[in-house]
Amino acid sequence: EDEYENILRLNTISKMLYLANYIIVVPTAQMYSTALGSRSCAALLIGAANISSLISSVLHSLLLSKPNSFIRKRTELSDFRLPLTFCSLFALGGNILYSSSLMKESLGMAFVGRFLVGFGSAEILNRQLVLSIYPQESVNTEVASLTKISMITTALALVLGSLFDIRVKEGMGERVPLLAGQMLSIMPSPTPAFNITLVAVSPSQPFLPPFPFDPLAPSIVPSGQHSLFSLESIGYIMSFAWFFHTIGLIFFFNPPKIRRRAEHETAPDVLKEEDFDSDTETYEQEKNEPDTPTETNPFISANKQETSHGDGTFEKLQTMSRKTVKHQSHHTYRESIASVRQIMFSNVAFPTAAAILLIVNITTEVLLSSSATITSRFFYWSGARSGLLLGSMASIRLPVTMSLATERNFTERRIMKVALEIGRWGLCLMLNYESLFLFVISIMKGGLKKASSSACRYDGAFGVPQYIFSFAIVFSSIVTLENSTLTLMSKVQIPARKMKKYSIDNAFVVVFVSALGRLLGDLLIFALDISSWPFLNDIVNSLCFSLIIALTTGLYIVKKHFFFLI
After folding, report:
1. Distances (CA, A) of 129 to 112, 123, 146, 270
2. Whole-number Å distance between alpha carbons of 107 and 388
3. Cβ(114)–Cβ(45) under 8 Å?
4. Contact (CB, 8 A) for 347 and 494
5. Which of 282, 310, 345 is nearest to 561 (CA)?
6. What is the pLDDT of residues 346-356, one digit of tens each?
7. How far apart are the first and last CA of the chain?
């Protein structure tokens, strides 16, 4: 595959850039939304890209399909250059709009920018391009490599996103701030010992006495501070990255000429067998080839000369049969979707795994997108501290995945069941019990009403360690659940031959369900944050109870179909 090195590298960069572009705004979305005049739209800024990502996945599937149906067509490597270039251009323009919205003070422009960024998602094309280059026995290795790169990219993007909220002392030149110093700062000091200091607001007196040791306690910002990077520089940096990727696609995405000429000759046997709409010329070429017994053409046998009677009768009958099949194979979109649904629901394990994958992505998105809002309101953290926390949590995905890959003592269904149970207990630990206690007291006093946002309290001195510890439990269980679910989906026994006929395959389901879950998670955060119902006044409890219900539903589904998840 040396001759495809540039193509594979550009394909990997496309996947990494979109993932980094999506996740890098998570630590600073709350600050960005507040600067544009809204304290509750941070989740919408993050999740706007998922709307266009869903649209993009459908458009790319149509691009890989024959007209008026979702039946897969033959594609050459050169067919991927134009759609990948358009994806880069959309993301480039979206990032410019996102950064310009801060100077224009336009929240709508920020939403449009993030919406355009979502069209940079080309995971359907990325996967199909890998399948077009690598032989079947090497595809799993390449997909595993892309998965590892994605996990590393997620952690790095969260850490890099935190840099856009770091403040340094003026007059210090180009000295790089010491992140370790900020992480170890405990008490505010009139003479800061480190170069990094963050804006902090002195919290009101907590309901419980203060905890003597806070490993992530913020420092008071002295006068003469400035941001290391401006918030609007996020979009500009990403737009530069997409610009260079676009240049690479234009000048370096060059499939070998030999490959382009022999594309149809080297097509997989499955596609030859199922492509009933191929031209008659192709059949005439196949007819002139030597008669060799093959499994893909049962009509050819050793006794062919006896059945053909030497006058071409057999060839005529085969041609008539081929034309009949060709006439009957013009499906509509509705018929293709109905066929795919019938195939997928032929084994109850596949829709069950897809439902669990939806719950996994909803939970993951809620944990990541709400972290900056929660830590800002309750702990008075900056986006930098929130990003460092999320980056450290995301770094455990790769070790967990590697350990599960070598696990042989437990089945996927058993791991899924245990992970769902542990996730529920972690969410119970994350609950804000101080807020629940005050809520019950207010009901007993008959004064139930929505409290002011300035009275945010989280279990007093135990809030910070409680949130971090429970976050780690839930996130670890969700990562374990995701890996087991994807492994189960790859093992589900569905008619693979029939599934490969359509562009809506297992990979499409994973991409579509993942984007849909992320979108639903962001909408859930927004809906609960703007709710005026007194019980939903505390965003921590409202999100935790919602996720507990979701995980309980997933646990019920797994238990109900436990013996079919093989």
Report:
1. 29, 10, 13, 17
2. 26
3. yes
4. yes
5. 345
6. 888 999 999 99
7. 35
